[in-house]
Amino acid sequence: MELTKIAFGGGCHWCTEAVFQILIGVVKVQQGWVRSVKENDTFSEAVIVHFNAKKTDLKVLIEIHLLTHKSTSNHSMRNKYRSAIYYFSEQQKKKSQKIKADLQLKFKDTIITQIVAFKNFKPSSEKFQNYYQSNPKKPFCQNYINPKLNFLLQKFSKNVNQRKVNHLISNL
């Protein structure tokens, strides 16, 4: 099975990791910090999503990313939480730009998410990886991650891996 990868940054990487971990076709999510080039060369919280493009479409992943963080808000924490899609090839860059432009029609406000080149990755420390799976009862998970997962179950149920969801529920 050949995997494709793309990186996403927006909000807390604990939240972003949990969102993508339950999707069909997503095989692995690496949580940590990503940096790009030029004005985006500082590390920002993000995840690298490894997925099977035959089971999930890049458009679905980008749409979910844009809808599960503040993709239209240029708040004061954007250095730590850069709203970005980090591409790994020119083809992926062009496809991401088209998808973002098409999805803009569904948003009232302008999407500020940047499409930037992936340069480097630093993983989170081991104790923070798979944060939601290890800490589903912690207040942070209950207050911030659960609403995002509930949103996915309501709006993207056909893209959610029910087996993964059932596993999470059985550990609560």
Please identify which CATH superfamily we are dealing with: Peptide methionine sulphoxide reductase MsrA
CATH architecture: 2-Layer Sandwich
Low-pLDDT segments: none
Query: What fraction strand?
Result: 15-25%
Q: First CA to last CA: what distance?
A: 32 Å
Largest sheet: 6 strands, mixed
Shape, per Cα inertia axes: globular
Topology:
Layout: E1 4-9, H1 13-21, E2 26-35, E3 44-51, H2 58-67, E4 84-87, H3 90-104, E5 114-117, E6 120-123, H4 131-134, H5 139-155, H6 162-170
Care to give the gist of this entry?
The protein has helices at 13-21, 58-67, 90-104, 131-134, 139-155, 162-170, and strands at residues 4-9, 26-35, 44-51, 84-87, 114-117, 120-123. By secondary structure, it is an alpha+beta fold. The chain has a single domain (4-162), classed as Peptide Methionine Sulfoxide Reductase, Chain A.
In words, what does this structure look like?
The protein is 37% helix and 21% strand. Helix 1 (13-21) crosses helix 5 (139-155). The protein has helices at 13-21, 58-67, 90-104, 131-134, 139-155, 162-170, and strands spanning 4-9, 26-35, 44-51, 84-87, 114-117, 120-123. It is an alpha+beta fold and 172 residues long. Helix 3 (90-104) links the parallel strand 4 (84-87) and strand 5. Strands 5-4-1-3-2-6 form a six-stranded mixed sheet, with helices on one face. The protein has six helices and six strands; from the N terminus they run E-H-E-E-H-E-H-E-E-H-H-H. It has one domain: 2-Layer Sandwich (Peptide Methionine Sulfoxide Reductase, Chain A), CATH 3.30.1060.10. The relative contact order is 0.22.
